[in-house]
Amino acid sequence: MPSVRSCPQSCHALGVDCFYCVQVSHHPPVSAVYAINRREGFALSATVLAKSKFYGNSTSAILDGRVNLVLLPRGEEYTMTMPYAHCKGILMGTLSMELGGKVTIDCEKTGYSAELEFKLRPFLTIS
């Protein structure tokens, strides 16, 4: 039975009409997310398969899946991939976290597309 989380009342004050997060599979761990905010004009859905790799003093969390962002007033749907998170210094040294990899963004309706490359640079460092 999947576990379902929905947003508390405080989400409604922010304009979020609906938020659901469901772990649809435990082995492998797959999660699904859905949110809609009519006031801001968007709906978002995602499926994520979390994978990890351990490299001795560092580890990576690979988020394999897709994010679909719909801009409601325009009727445009953008499909995106996700970067991976890389943590260094988990056993010794300075602990830092970085985002890396390529993210693609595509909109079939407009034909727009973009590719972002995240270079591994620390954005969170704990000494």
TrEMBL record:
It comes from the Eukaryota. One of its GO terms (molecular function) is cholesterol binding. One of its GO terms (cellular component) is cortical endoplasmic reticulum. Pfam families: Oxysterol_BP. InterPro entries: OSBP_sf, Oxysterol-bd. Belongs to the OSBP family. This is Oxysterol-binding protein-related protein 8-like. It comes from Hyalella azteca (Amphipod). The gene is LOC108679771.
